[in-house]
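Exercise: predict the fold of this chain.
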Amino acid sequence: MSSEFPKPPPHNIEAEQALLGAILLSNEAHARVATFLRPDHFFEPVHQRLYETITDTIGTGRLADLVTLKPMVESWQPITDNMTVTQYLGRLAANAT
């Protein structure tokens, strides 16, 4: 039975948010996943772009946190009319466990 629209891959936005928040709080969390996790493994496009930016930043030997990422994401399209990517990063870090 063929479908006109392919099914989206399985995804968990909350898990993506938790991982990104954990990395923002401790870049050591990135080292644990960097060998197998790629930006395209994220379902949410902004998460893909954030993970890629974090990976690139860490790859140059710099810390990837709210302070260092802010200038990199300030020009990105807002998440919603009421939330910039910078604000979203803050929320990810605040909600991280």
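Check your answer against the key: The radius of gyration is 14 Å.
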